[in-house]
Amino acid sequence: MAVKGLGAIDQEYDGSKLRIGILHARWNKEIIESLVEGAKKKLLEFNVKPENIVVETVPGSFELPYGSKLFYEKAAKEGKPLDAIIPIGVLIKGSTMHFEYICDSVTHQLMKLNFELGVPVIFGVLTCITEEQAQARAGLIEGKMHNHGEDWGAAAVEMATKFN
What we know:
The protein is α/β, with parallel strands linked by helices. It has five helices and four strands; from the N terminus they run βαβαβαβαα.
């Protein structure tokens, strides 16, 4: 398989002063839980304090863009702004065009949020043809692939600190 992951980090990043939001869909629970745990594990490795990893849920991947916006705004209003958001979802192709529409819409809207919110919004949405592909990318199939949640956690810390 060609998927290799994030690759070598170009420098050490200290996430000890960061507050990172993880917003995840509730569809495909086993896969989602593994991805969330992978992201949290990597955030902790980059010294993000456990109390500064905020986890929330939305019904599905379609709700991730608007949910991310509301999540960010709520945290800012409470005086606890987020330095990055990792929306996590899993979309698996079915027998209709629904998959393509949701993938395209969610991808574009999450990308736009980077510019609208002014903080990194990491693309943590698996778009897979089969459930097995999603399980592999969540690190649930031994020896098949790594947990992509870890890549997303590392990317959040890097992007929240690198250019500040």
